[in-house]
Amino acid sequence: MLPIILLSILGLLVLFLGFQKSKNILLPATLLVLVITLIANFANWNDAPSLYFKGMLFENKLTMAFSGIVLISALLISALTRGFIDDEAAQPAEYYAIMLFSLVGAIIMIGYENLLMLFVGVEILSVSMYVLTGSDKRNLRSNEAALKYLLMGSFATGIMLFGMALLYGATGSFNLTALKSYVLTNPSPSVMMYVGLLMLLIGMLFKVSAAPFHFWTPDVYDGAPTVFTAFMSTIVKTAGFAAIYRLLSGSFSGAYTFWWSTLAGITVLTLLAGNITAVYQNSFKRMMAYSSISHAGYLLLSLTALSSQSQDAIVFYSLAYSLATISAFGVLMIVGKETGVRSNEVSENFNVFNGLGKKNPLLAFVLTVSMLSLAGIPLTAGFWGKFFVFSSVVERGLTWILIVAVLMSAVGIYYYFKAVIAAYMREGEGNAIKVPQFYRLVLIVTTIITLFFGLLPDLLKGLV
Amino acid sequence: MLTLSLILIPLIAGVITLLTKNNSAKQLALVGAAIELVLAVVIYAQFQSTAAQQFSFSYPWIQSAGISFAGGIDGISILLVMLTAFLTPLIVLSTFRQPYKNASTFYALILFMQAALMGVFTATDAFLFYLFFEAALIPIYFLAAVWGGEDRIKVTFKFFVYTIFGSLFMLVALVYLYYQTTSAQGHTSEISAFYKLALDAQKQGWIFWAFFIAFAIKMPVFPFHTWQPDTYTESPTPATMLLAGIMLKMGVYGVIRFVLPIVPLGLQTWGTTAIVLSVIGIVYGSIIAIQQRDMKRLIAYSSFAHVGLMSAGVFSQTLSGVQGALIQMLAHGINVVGLFFIIEIIFSRTKTRNIEQLGGITQRTPHLTVYFMILMLGSVALPLTNGFVGEFLLLRGVYESNIWLGAIAGTTIILGAVYMLRLFQKSMFGAKSAFTEHFADLSFSERAVLVPLVIMVFWMGLYPNSFLKLTEPAVSNLLQMIHY
């Protein structure tokens, strides 16, 4: 549990670095903290699974893999922040520190062994996100998004807490292992447990924006500064799914017959709502918001199946999705800023990419690979993500949901390709955009990893 | 190793082409494609006409799931490998007079396309096949959508979404079949392991449709053809040649490779439906072709009609039907590439593809007339040309399976002659028009493309056995598996 301690202490240090006159040190310091934490996270990779903090937290290869994905995403996103959150009026030290603190929440969510820790983790992550969403203080939409997120989020947290209380009432414990033995020893448990589980799930599904609890997503994603949209759509989602997976596979796999149909319904709804609404978006950023809903649907699909393939599928899918999303938002940030300078208004519509293939072949290529990966076209990591998810579903034999998912993947291609078409086939204005070396490096790294896992998925699969 | 090189050479040549300057790209691409052709000829010379897989290679790929990077060539793939290797250099050569912007990307995409096609035709692992099947779509999409005509964005997008949609169903079927297999290390995705599965009739029915939709969209078979005429018309001619000459064969090949041996019971139930759809495509495509004025569109519809006959022949599950489809794929690829090239020659000189505006070209162009005539007659399936052998075998196959459908399919001979002769007559004969006033005969590089094609027309027409004998053992072996 070194990462939690490191992030908390070093995060405080970063906060105090804000007293320095020069703000230039903040970004390197944050990156350094993240690199150290990442190393610490994987340092005891080969250790046996173990409990920490008086049995409140759990650590094994799976939690380390999820924490790794979260930390890598955070590292890449932080590297893209230069020039986006450290302008004159902002207080970048706070934002960097909050980002680091939010990761503590994410890691606790991933490694909880006790439902109370789950609650603590969710709250640390959510409160940080509320603040970061509203960090563009003079922007009305950013403020609106933060308030909306806070109100809806608190409501969901309340339901979640209620669910935990009911579970405690039914089983007498918050401990995952105790819950598991309760489920296994009581073939017909009390209704209270079912209601508690459902309410807990609803709260968690809200956090990962599954339909019908997704209505906050587009506005919040759209209003938040793009850096933090990327942060939300990768880190919150990965941590949220890790938490749900651990809950369902760890404690409630015995009650599969109870919850699978509910989850199946939500999955289908999420797939439909995310994909079909995404088709009608003119704003790339809003499209990405709906796409994040649809990807939540695919991850839920694998959870619904809960077969031997599901764990690998969820880990792989989360990584592939995070990488592609970071690339996409990275390109949007730099291109949107440039068009903003030209026309005095930062634009996030598809047409900002017009003519990108001619102006900046590299950015256009990065965007294309990321869109192909999100759409699940072969030779990218996204394809294998979908492949493993589909495999897990076929193994369980839920063919009818699979057909919905397949149809929705075809719909997905439609809206992802709008960006590719804009980049290569439409005429744009303006000159080549100057991309800082460092920024370029991050985009190249995400693209290469995406393609690499597209060719050799085996390196990751079966690792955890 | 030779087979792996077939995939790797165009890939490497493509990367090199991508990195070179625009003005030397086409020469480099031609060299790459020529090396590939030499390699294919070596394979052709060493190929034994037995039913066995030859030149196989296999590397572990996704070991934990029993998926390997494996390929090989058997009697069913040999002709398509040859076709791809033979046509690609000619397609590259056909562009020599026409400057394309961003040439290095353009030629690199053609070579990437070739690599993916080779992968499709040689893969012996189902998921590897799928990977190449979809990967082939990306270069051709960009070729058509970036360098195409006015309406290209919408048209090619439809093509892309349509085909991916179809292949997703195939992916589901493949994953399902994969979970039915058992081997020492769990499941395996070797295609030959799929052949050994004996699923019940209902499951086979579902899998049949999953495969059928994927391949029917690719070929295309009626009523999944609506993407095809527009895409062929709007694409730049080299992309059209790749689409019509080679890519459409991926669908027919897929049916022979997957549908016939894996779901025989599904075919028993649904085979006739598939033949009926194919035969509708033949008649429907031909009738529309007769009414076309745009030459490229006309050939597009004729291609739709021809592939309908191939599909009908394959679904008839007879030796002559499948053999006919294999030889006809080769013949059709050669003819259609030649015809599209001739249309491009006429278009580049007159700036029109409308046959009403053409005419009188023959008077100054003896060479063009002769080549056009030979290719046209090959497409009409005149005896002694390449089209005849395939069409005869295909019709015999359909006839053996169902007399009435055979009779309706037979109208392709008459209808085909009508639209092809109409095309030839309207464009080449008659009075000169304002567009054809100063029409120059073929240049050297244009002849260099057409001569090999014409040689093949006669070679296949006069001595088809040099191709049929390669495929026969593999085809009869495959059909024996069905009729167990």
TrEMBL record, chain A:
| Transmembrane intervals | 25-43, 63-81, 93-110, 116-134, 146-171, 191-215, 227-245, 257-280, 287-308, 314-335, 362-385, 397-417, 438-456
The answer to whether the entry has keyword Transport is yes
Where in the cell does this protein reside? Cell membrane; Endomembrane system; Membrane
Q: How does it sit in the membrane?
A: Multi-pass membrane protein
What is one process in the GO biological process aspect for this record?
Answer: ATP synthesis coupled electron transport
GO CC annotations, alphabetized: endomembrane system; plasma membrane
EC id: 7.1.1.-
Please write the reaction equations for the catalytic activity of this protein.
a quinone + NADH + 5 H(+)(in) = a quinol + NAD(+) + 4 H(+)(out)
> Where does the NADH:quinone oxidoreductase/Mrp antiporter transmembrane domain start and stop, copy by copy?
114-409
- Class of the enzyme per the UniProt entry, highest EC level: translocase
Q: What does this protein do?
A: NDH-1 shuttles electrons from NADH, via FMN and iron-sulfur (Fe-S) centers, to quinones in the respiratory chain. The immediate electron acceptor for the enzyme in this species is believed to be a menaquinone. Couples the redox reaction to proton translocation (for every two electrons transferred, four hydrogen ions are translocated across the cytoplasmic membrane), and thus conserves the redox energy in a proton gradient.
Q: How is the quaternary structure described? A: NDH-1 is composed of 14 different subunits. Subunits NuoA, H, J, K, L, M, N constitute the membrane sector of the complex.
Q: Which PANTHER family match?
A: NADH DEHYDROGENASE
Q: Report the sequence similarity comment from the record.
A: Belongs to the complex I subunit 2 family.
The name this protein goes by in its record: NADH-quinone oxidoreductase subunit N
Species per Swiss-Prot/TrEMBL record:
Runella defluvii
Automatic annotation (TrEMBL), chain B:
Going by the UniProt record, its keywords in alphabetical order are:
Membrane, Transmembrane, Transmembrane helix
Which residues does the UniProt record annotate as the domain NADH:quinone oxidoreductase/Mrp antiporter transmembrane?
123-412
Out of the domains of life, which is the source? Answer: Bacteria
The residues that cross the membrane are 6-21, 28-47, 67-93, 105-121, 127-147, 159-179, 206-227, 239-263, 269-291, 298-319, 325-347, 368-389, 401-424, 444-463
From the Swiss-Prot or TrEMBL record, what is one GO molecular function term?
ubiquinone binding
What GO terms fall under cellular component here?
endomembrane system; membrane
Entry membrane topology:
Multi-pass membrane protein
Biological processes per GO annotation: ATP synthesis coupled electron transport; electron transport coupled proton transport
Give the UniProt family note: Belongs to the complex I subunit 4 family.
The cross-references to NCBIfam families, in alphabetical order and at most eight, read: NDH_I_M (TIGR01972)
Q: What is this protein called?
A: NADH-quinone oxidoreductase subunit M
